[in-house]
Each structure stands twice: as C-alpha cells, then as structure tokens.
Amino acid sequence: MFNPESTYRIQFHSGFKFKNLENIIPYLQKLGIKTIYASPIFDAVPGSMHGYDGVNPNTFNPELGTLKDLTRISKKLKSAGMSWIQDIVPNHMGFHHKNEWLMDVLKKGDQSNYYNYFDIISEDLSESPLMAPFLGS
Question: Which listed residue, of 13, 18, 81, 122, carries a Cα 20 to 30 Å from 75's Cα?
Fold first, then answer.
C-alpha cells in the first residue's frame, strides 16, 4: 500500500497548466515534497478554475495541456522521487452545452445511451419531458 507523505496540492486551471507544474518540480523537490495531489484534469466547463464542473471524463481539459505534457511530467516526477495523487469527480458533472452526455439525455430522455449515468427520478419520460430548473430573472 502506498502512503503519501509531504503532499502538495496543485490547482490546475487556464492560468496554471501542466507546463507550469513541470517548471516548479525542482523547487518542490528542494522543499521535500514527495507527492503531488492534483486537482481534476479532465475536460471541464471552459474557464473552470477548479475542474469540479467536468463535462467529459474521457478527455483531458485542453486548457491544461496534453497527454504528451502529462507523460513528460510523470517521468520527471519519477526521476525526482515524487508521486502523483489524482483528484477525480465521480459523482457529478457540469451543466454546460459541452457536456454531450447530459445534452443527449435532455434531447432523448430515457432513450439516451447515457440516461443511466445520471440519477434521474422519473417514472415515464414519454409522458412528460425531462426538465432542468434554473432560478433567474
């Protein structure tokens, strides 16, 4: 079992990308950091400052970088004797038009391939549409 020690939280967003982390690995190593605890890195609502409003758990957030960037960072962390803990968001998604799963459910209701991915309370969507309430003027 892995026990993380001297963990350092990295909050990724468009102003702090994978490459920014790569640049500070030597500094973190000098501080004695052994484990990076990374905020969510999967595709999120554009401009997200935290990544907890994900729209696609199968792709990286393009605002943060690429798989190539992440692979390079992984190698540098390993050579620095550092590890990585990845924060994920398995229990909710961002309500945004980029969320193709949700948009498909709103369009097709219980006929959507993604319908069972969501906790939808409804007996029969053929009689009444799925609605998403919003407060506002």
Answer: 13
